[in-house]
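sorry for the late reply, my laptop died twice this morning and i had to redo everyting from scratch. anyway the thing you sent over, i finally got around to it. pasting the sequence first so we're on the same page, its 497 residues, then the predicted structure underneath. double check i copied it right bc i was rushing
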Amino acid sequence: MTQTFKNFIAGEWVAPSTDNYFENHNPADWSDVIGRFPRSGPEDAQRAIASAKRGFTQWSKTPAPLRGAVLQRVGELLVQKKEALARAMTREMGKVLAETRGDVQEGIDTAFYAASEGRRLFGRVVPSELRNKWAMSFRRPIGVAGIITPFNFPMAIPTWKMFPALLCGNAVIFKPAEDVPHTGHLLVEILLEAGLPPEVIQLLHGQGSVVGRAVIEHPDVPVISFTGSTETGSVIGATCGRMHKRLSLEMGGKNAMIVMDDADLDLALEGVLWGAFGTTGQRCTATSRLILHEKIHDRFLTMLGDRAGKLRLGPGLEEKTEVGPMIHEESRQKVDSYVGIGKQEGATVLVGGATATGGALDRGWFYQPTVLAGVKPGMRVEQEEIFGPVLSAIKVGSLDEAVRVNNDVLYGLSSSLYTRDVNAAFRAMSDLDNGITYINAPTIGAEAHLPFGGVKQTGNGHREGGWEVYDFYSETKVCYVDYSGQLQRAQIDTYTE
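ok and here's the structure:
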């Protein structure tokens, strides 16, 4: 019998006010129903917000080191449950076990990093310009944080957002993507098991256009963090700007790997296979453009076509599988339509370019790893985010041209350069217009203790991960203590005639 799941609101697992549910299916096997999950409504969001406000009052007064101790226990529980969580995640969203184990590990790393920050929420003490006066700053929590996350990293991305928010003393309303509600449920169970006060965390399942919108538009939710499409992020940005909310956006990417004529081609080949087809290309950091120097262009494409055509597709729970399914049929159709657009624009299909069929593949949403050759700058397949296993190859004559091609898109998340020339490497690090640049590594591979994010239409300037995210989830307060026993006038009394 199919299990029915609930929201977590006001310290209880509760059915949605709508009494409506949706089925969550395994993308590698349509017949495998993971469970029924709430299709919540605005009333559920209202109850969650009211509860989170009460939770914030309690949690914000908990000393930061004690908040860190809770997250330390969260990390320890994630370690204990890592394999079970990875298998549940693969069943739910499709990517191979090696990747879901890494997804959980990212959550573990984030938990332990956050735990240590409980003793490092530093402010500053600075000299006053007046005598007998003390000047300092400290950080304090903001309030209720609305966390809206995508399907492709069901553990890593929520932990990137939630753990820093919680460590800083905020309460959290968590709205996972409709495609991965089960992983979100398991994460909340772990938070509660670790000792997080129940009203500090709320779990809302359902449509982003309904419950996500209700959270975003509510005046009692001053902080919003969203990862998803640029189109949706733009709408959220307009709402939050009008309401003066603190907002972090992490959106699309059109990331390029540049391979120069002096590069280690075997190393670059392994990098592009992982960067383009890991997570079935469903990453904001996925390598979707391959910029090749003309001297190695033909040779490298031959190498790539041979290897890409041999990648093993199948259910992610099978250890031999290298590429799993798309998340759903709509995504698969979108990918296929872009391949058609590429051919209309003059590109040729080097390998792939069609739905993957045969045997177990017929029961899931599989698409062949695809390489488009002869792509020119300005083509739609070179400019627009496809979010699937499609790689566009572009020929250039120099590093300068490669940099121009890389930069001439609306996005600016990740980039990569393969070269043995240290001068070229440092030029690229300076000139590539991206938030992240890798040298002799693919465009994917962010680490939990460094800031993550991009420029241009990839985001709005805030970073996730590392030390910077703690500034986003806290406010700076400045305090002055005058112990002179007399009125002193700053910026006036310091000047003498």
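The CA atoms of residues 328 and 365 lie 6 Å apart.
thats about all i looked at so far, will dig more tmrw
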